[in-house]
């Protein structure tokens, strides 16, 4: 981690719930986008908040929830996006991640992709 770019990188995992306002209305668990197209933004947010509550309360583990519910292909890795630097993710996602301490979990974050809960892991 000697180079300055590596030092400025963060690592995060996330859970993405897509909805009818999402840029791409398909995912690994909904290839036809049938569920996503019928999911309102509000119901995506409330679903995500319920999942976040389970994680915060210790009822569920972040990576297990991500692998089951996330609409992102990172679900296969428990939501892990690996390390990234500034300018690589959508701005609200980047800002939220850089604003977290390692191990912290964000509130619901909205991007063009859908709604996310982010856990900073590095």
TrEMBL record:
<dbReference type="Pfam" id="PF00639">
    <property type="entry name" value="Rotamase"/>
</dbReference>
<feature type="domain" description="PpiC">
    <location>
        <begin position="7"/>
        <end position="122"/>
    </location>
</feature>
<dbReference type="GO" id="GO:0005829">
    <property type="term" value="C:cytosol"/>
</dbReference>
<keyword id="KW-0697">Rotamase</keyword>
<feature type="region of interest" description="Disordered">
    <location>
        <begin position="1"/>
        <end position="35"/>
    </location>
</feature>
<dbReference type="InterPro" id="IPR000297">
    <property type="entry name" value="PPIase_PpiC"/>
</dbReference>
<dbReference type="InterPro" id="IPR023058">
    <property type="entry name" value="PPIase_PpiC_CS"/>
</dbReference>
<dbReference type="GO" id="GO:0005634">
    <property type="term" value="C:nucleus"/>
</dbReference>
<dbReference type="InterPro" id="IPR051370">
    <property type="entry name" value="PPIase_Pin1"/>
</dbReference>
<dbReference type="InterPro" id="IPR046357">
    <property type="entry name" value="PPIase_dom_sf"/>
</dbReference>
<protein>
    <recommendedName>
        <fullName>Peptidyl-prolyl cis-trans isomerase</fullName>
        <ecNumber>5.2.1.8</ecNumber>
    </recommendedName>
</protein>
<feature type="compositionally biased region" description="Polar residues">
    <location>
        <begin position="1"/>
        <end position="11"/>
    </location>
</feature>
<feature type="compositionally biased region" description="Basic residues">
    <location>
        <begin position="16"/>
        <end position="26"/>
    </location>
</feature>
<dbReference type="GO" id="GO:0003755">
    <property type="term" value="F:peptidyl-prolyl cis-trans isomerase activity"/>
</dbReference>
<keyword id="KW-0413">Isomerase</keyword>
<comment type="function">
    <text>Prolyl cis/trans isomerase with specificity for phospho-Ser-Pro bonds.</text>
</comment>
<comment type="similarity">
    <text>Belongs to the PpiC/parvulin rotamase family.</text>
</comment>
């Amino acid at each position: 981690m000697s180079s300055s770019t590596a030092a400025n990188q963060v690592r995060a995992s996330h859970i993405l719930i897509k909805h009818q306002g999402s840029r791409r209305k398909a995912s690994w668990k909904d290839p036809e986008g049938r569920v996503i197209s019928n999911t309102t933004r509000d119901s995506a947010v409330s679903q995500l908040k319920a999942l976040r509550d389970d994680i915060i309360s210790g009822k569920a583990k972040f990576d297990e929830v991500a692998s089951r519910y996330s609409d992102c292909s990172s679900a296969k890795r428990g939501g892990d996006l690996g390390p990234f630097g500034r300018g690589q993710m959508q701005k609200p996602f980047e800002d939220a991640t850089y604003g977290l301490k390692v191990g912290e979990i964000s509130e619901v974050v909205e991007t063009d992709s859908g709604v996310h809960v982010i856990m900073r892991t590095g």
